[in-house]
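Render this sequence as a predicted structure.
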Amino acid sequence: MSGKGPGGSARLVVVDDDPSCLESVCAYLEDSGFSVGRARDGREGLAVIERESPELVLLDLQMPGLHGLEVLASVRE
């Protein structure tokens, strides 16, 4: 992908179970020119990561169900 800096078109995914945190982080990144995928929990995060193949994933570590470190381990496999 081209445009990997602020204002570019890099694809990011944000995974967070706190709706206000998720939306504020995504809004900031989108205002900075990034394309952002959202997920509200670890399982949804894995699906979005697989579907969108992002260049960067921002993970909340403490989520119910599948937490951030488990998502990271699954992505690394």
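Summary. The beta strands are 11-15, 35-39, 56-59. Helices lie at 19-31, 42-52, 68-76.
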